[in-house]
Automatic annotation (TrEMBL):
Protein name as it appears in the record: Cadherin domain-containing protein
Organism, scientific name: marine metagenome
Listed Gene3D superfamilies: Cadherins (2.60.40.60)
Length: 229
């Protein structure tokens, strides 16, 4: 153990039974470090909605088995899109010699889903976080997608066809003024202009929908942008 004793001195003697010869020896102990690399930076997986800036986006943590101080740096194609806090010491883990540190990330400017500012323009921001204890370094590459603020669920990985979820219709009676719908809840069944059929549809990808008519009698009817025929 270098910290206990750095060298040992002995004299070696050899004899043939009548004559002896001796040589003094010094054995030097070379110090070796027990230091190990810190753990790879770990960031919470997830996503952020557009218009998020001052709110914390994610936290990256790392541990050092020697209890030393850790420094963090950011790099990668979208590093400039994030602000990174100074390392925060959060205590020791179950190992008494291990210390835990964290850094907090926020967006440097407001992300806009409709106007992506990441390097490749796909609304997925990529950053590499490197942690060092002064001797060893570890790095992790992290990605964080930005979602449309009006998307309540994660975007679908594939574009899906829209579906018609409901069609409401009523019987109609011709009048001298043309075709009109009779409101069954209207006292006296007084006719007035209104839609004959309402088409209700939805799209899993939240894309804008357009309606159209086809078939034998399509030319006799029209449908507007809201699905009213």
């Amino acid at each position: 153990d270098y910290e206990t004793k750095t060298s040992y001195s002995v004299t070696a003697t050899v004899s043939d039974g009548s004559i002896t010869s001796s040589q003094a020896l010094t054995i030097t102990v070379i110090n070796t470090t027990n230091e190990q690399a810190p753990s790879s930076p770990q960031g919470g997986a997830g996503y952020v909605f557009e218009n998020t800036t001052t709110a914390e986006v994610f936290v990256v943590s790392s541990s050092d088995n020697d209890g030393g101080n850790l420094t963090f740096t950011k790099s990668g194609p979208d590093a400039a899109s994030f602000n990174m806090s100074d390392p925060v010491y959060v205590g020791r883990a179950s190992n008494a010699n291990m210390s835990d540190y964290r850094v907090h990330f926020t967006f440097a400017s407001v992300p806009d889903y409709e106007n992506p500012q990441d390097a490749n323009g796909d609304n997925t921001y990529e950053v590499t976080v490197t942690v060092s204890d002064g001797t060893f370094t570890r790095s992790s590459s992290l990605t964080y997608p930005v979602w449309d603020a009006y998307t309540p669920d994660p975007p679908s990985e594939t574009d899906e066809a829209p579906s018609i979820t409901e069609i409401t219709s009523v019987s109609i009676h011709e009048t001298v003024d043309g075709i009109r719908m009779v409101d069954l809840n209207n006292s006296g069944n007084s006719p007035y202009d209104e839609a004959v059929i309402v088409v209700i549809a939805e799209d899993a990808n939240k894309d804008s929908l357009t309606f159209s008519l086809s078939g034998t009698d399509a030319s006799s009817l029209s449908i507007n942008s809201s699905g009213f025929i």
